[in-house]
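In the current project phase, the collection of sequences with tokenised folds has grown. One resulting record follows, to show the layout:
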Amino acid sequence: MQKIDVIIIGAGAAGLMCAIEAGKRGRKVIVLDQANKPGKKILMSGGGRCNFTNTQINPDYYISHNKHFCKSALSRYTAWDFIDLVKQHNIAYHEKTLGQLFCDHKSKDILDMLLSLCEKYGVTIYLNIKIESIHKSDDESYTIKNNHINFQCKSLVIATGGLSIPTMGASPFGYKIAEQFGLKVWPTRAGLVPLTLHPEDKEKLSILSGISIDSIVSNQRQYFREYILFTHRGLSGPAILQISSYWQPGEDININLLPDIHLTETLKSTQKIQPQKQLKTILAEYLPKRVVEVFLNTGIAENQLQLISHREFEKIALLFQKWHIKPNGTEGYRTAEVTLGGVDCNAISSKTMEVNHIPNLYFIGEVLDVTGWLGGYNFQWAWASGFAAGQVV
């Protein structure tokens, strides 16, 4: 039995950040992970360039049954704190749309930075670890039995993530530990995930696979303006991934494919100036031709504007600017970027991430019921929650 100050289960973003901060305080820290490499999700994130944070972090951009929970950690470790860390390690980065920050080179730059800091502060990482049991002793310490060395620790941190991308080693382990200690776990589902379509819509739209369009996508609770992408399975792209976290099965979503123009008025004014122009020719100035062909029947598409009534213009505008479609479902955890739901935040201290009524047990990162928007928000939650726990474990 090896005695340790702090054991962190999970060598992802939150776990490594917590390990670094605890190590800085002179704590003896061990990180355990079932994978054969640390930080696998870091490496594959952002298309291999790691969208490591966002300059527009706001607690309102997180989903949780306790909407106030994330505020404390996010305010004490901000995007600018992590940016400073990146700068200190001379990692080149750039800003893309909507405040998203990416590495200029590879995600490995971020992981290498975290691992070098772990080494600097004496953190030991054990990989290929299969945990068999966790037991809490009367002295508030924890015994972790596994396939390698059995450990006893004063502080135990669960940083095992959610269920997204099982090929990266995702598992329900963290939820099971929460339940073992009597904590509520909110039902989980895939978030930031492509939407699939019913067979008839899928067949109709399959010809559009590969086309992306700047759109406003909305439902009754939320809206996003970014690109949508038609795929051979359904709809994807940033705007669809965003709305998927707010979508419930059976609901419609609304899509405005032309958010920058008032299509009815545009058609009316063009009708006065160029009455002999075909409708499809005008629409092709704003949308890919294939999209026009799919949404409009050939007859009206080839009509000259002078032959189309203003009432019909309004109907045409609705087709493109108030397109209602009911998804069949999502692609599930296989392609989801995050997991919605998780360990109930009401049971956790928002300042320390410690379980309120169980001393020395902590939950951080995605395993908690905190889910951010697309664009670096979930990494910032990992850094912030890991930092918060790292100050006290």
The chain is about 30% helix and 25% strand. The mean pLDDT is 97.
